[in-house]
Amino acid sequence: MDEQILQYKDLYERLAAYGKxxxxxxxMPGHKRAALNFANPYQIDIxxxxxxxxxxxxxxxxxxxxxxxxxxxxxxxxxxxxNGSTGGILSAIGASIKTGDEIIIARNCHKSVYNAxxxxxxxxxxxxxxxxxxxxxxxxVPEQLEDVLKEHKNIKLVVIxxxxxxxxxxxxxKIADIAHxxxxxxxxxxxxxxxxxxxxxxxxxxxxLGADLVIHSLHKTxxxxxxxxALHVAGDRADIxxxxxMMSIFQSSSPSYLLMAGIDRCIGIIERSxxxxxxxxxxxxxxxxxxxxxxxxxxxxTEKDYEAYDVPAVDHGKILIRTCHPKVNGVQLYDxxxxxxxxxxxxxxxxxxxxxxxxxxTQEGFDRLFWALLEIDRDLELTSDLLxxxxxYRNKSQLGKFLERxxxxxxxxxxxxxxEHYNIEETLLQSSVGKISAExxxxxxxxxxxxxxxxxxxxxxxxxxxxxxxxxxxxxGLRDRQCxxxxxxxxx
Length: 492
What we know:
- It is built from 15 helices and 20 strands.
- The protein has helices at residues 3-6, 11-20, 41-44, 61-73, 84-96, 111-119, 142-151, 172-181, 218-221, 240-249, 257-291, 330-339, 363-382, 396-406, 459-471; strands at 24-26, 77-81, 102-106, 123-127, 155-161, 168-169, 185-189, 213-216, 229-233, 298-300, 313-314, 318-323, 343-345, 347-348, 352-356, 424-428, 441-443, 448-451, 475-476, 485-489.
């Protein structure tokens, strides 16, 4: 990051300097810092006063606005969320189960799902997404879900993530049919798919494919403020009163009118200009993918790359750029785009970077990304000294095998909430093999756990953690920020 920005020690001043800079945001939020003619925030920051309704007892203004949201997504009910999709996920799960129930969750679910598991002391059964090239987590296989439901007759709820952080979509219709056949409710965390169904260029939303409850992070891919989201009732299985109670529990009792106004403004933009904006967005994406074919040592992933995995659909708005050259890995490519070209990607992985786009991205932004990639590609062709060689990962097949082990199945000894019933001790990571973890370890983003409390720590996991650190990937979850120690169950 530029020193002219880093010189500011006050958060507001640093944000203001960043906002005025030439750094281009290929990351959320979806408004992309566009000038949307929003009023001075201090002038319109209010609480529940006369004429402005109340979020949890909406009777007119907010009720009508939420009905507009409902109409856009063709849901049975839609609710504003001002605590992000996290608040929606916690509320949806809380309203769909009783404490101690059995549920199925996709292993690549967001950490808020795991927090709900802990809060409601749920008994978990995991289904694992396909592992794809480059370390990408793929679709949920419906047949795997049915196998678990056949074996465990008391499951009340299924929670999956679709699309994934990387834009991979599962067969929601088939998954919903299976879940309902076994009398289970289906919640889809569609946080990264708020733009689905708003244009035929993108996949169909889970709202219309049989899911019972769907959560959208409006701020991720639409012009809305960070922390704004929506919860949609799409089926007949939802406990509406329970759901509304949970939303009042897991969100602030003083919901921000700035955030709600941001949602309302977002709805208005879609209503008035949605088709025009999505048509231009589609044009920019198609053009980018076409000219991206000219790259030799970098590769822009397309649907063709996923054909072998029978993926139902992908989100074209998630641009994944893979490095095919031994001299640069995903983290190095991310740093190069940021520091030399002032292009801020959403995230980096071992072999690729993710550029997150929206209807608010400009043609100039797409052009800047392409010309930067083209220049990097040419440098990789011409020089052997562009970047330090990552010797351990010259062999891409070796890296692929390593990535597959990052999220391999762990031995489950106890439920997540059960670890609280035992004494917890701090153990050196290198000496923790065979012990039961009492905390999470995950790569963030996207926040998918490598291990959860109650699972056995293996020597493979220790090796994986070391290699992730060597690659410069961001590990979170451990209280020890140096990743030298881990909390474990002292004894059983």
